[in-house]
Model the fold of this input.
Amino acid sequence: MIDEHAHPFALEPGSLDLSHVSLDQVDAPNAEERRERMRPTFLWHALLRSRLADRLGVQVDDVEAARADAAREYPAYVRGLFAEAGISEIVMDPAWPPGSEHRVAEYEALTGCPVHLLFRIDTLVDQLLERGAGFDEVLQEFDGSLEERRAAGYVGLKTIIAYRTGLAVDPGVSDHDAAASLPGEGPLKRRAKPLRDFLLRRALVFAAEAGLPVQFHTGFGDSDIRLSEANPLLLEELLRTPEGTAADVVLIHGSFPHHEEAAYLAAARPNVHVDFSLFNIFAPARIADRLLRLIELAPTGKVLAATDGFALPETYWFAAMLTHEAWSDVRRRLQELGAGSEWIDAATEAVFEQNARRLYRL
Ligand SMILES: [Zn+2]
Done:
């Protein structure tokens, strides 16, 4: 399986600390205590610990200690997880957590998988806004950064504009609107919507010319996001512009919970793809159902498997293991429906490997 969307994780063994694996990122004086209290009541938390305990051959209560033992030989431990999960290559967004962009070789050595990088444009836009750059400077640095990443062999772009000013990107925003929005006020992440929209359109033009796909965060995420601004249907006007039609677009996370909307866009718009990731960590009970909702409508030639693994190597392993199990259920259902083994095998090959290989030119 090519893991088509994931993030950096701990390069040192540390402990099985799941405190960073949470959708609840709301800051408050008692936030840690609150998260600590709720964590054991999440299904994903119970499943991750019990499955890891099984893997390590211990009772659930002993999983932290057994993991500490096993992770003493960290490279062997991590390779074991990735091998068991069937992950052979990783497409990584190194922007979060920050500081990992130049550590690719370490991730490759640790996982035994080639790692291919994405460039997240919003991090750069945030930095430019923060330092009060003028419009010409913004354009120069933005274009230069895109060009630099292409030359360095990055395989795609990524945007989290859903986490900023939302997916309702104005398809007609002009350079004049963009420049006028620069001296904005208010929280940085919510500032300068016209500029953010304008630069995203510019990135799509670049991506189309460079042959790089653009991953769009869609659907759920941590508490920083407004889910109402992350519905992929908000992209419909942008996807009708020349640049929105020319560039390959991937709606990530299956746009959870908007699976059918994402599947529709992948079915109806020639350049739109959809990946399934993140919900196979945080919503682990109905993955097969969600995958079926995607592939009953979207062509399997445009659906991609991914984990959104982050923080700990076990998140990659957990998501991938559950995904393989879910896909077995999906295969069974397709068989019952009469899809035929040959078609199902070709779909499996496409979703888990060939689509990513073609789209990212791996
Ligand atoms: Zn992600």
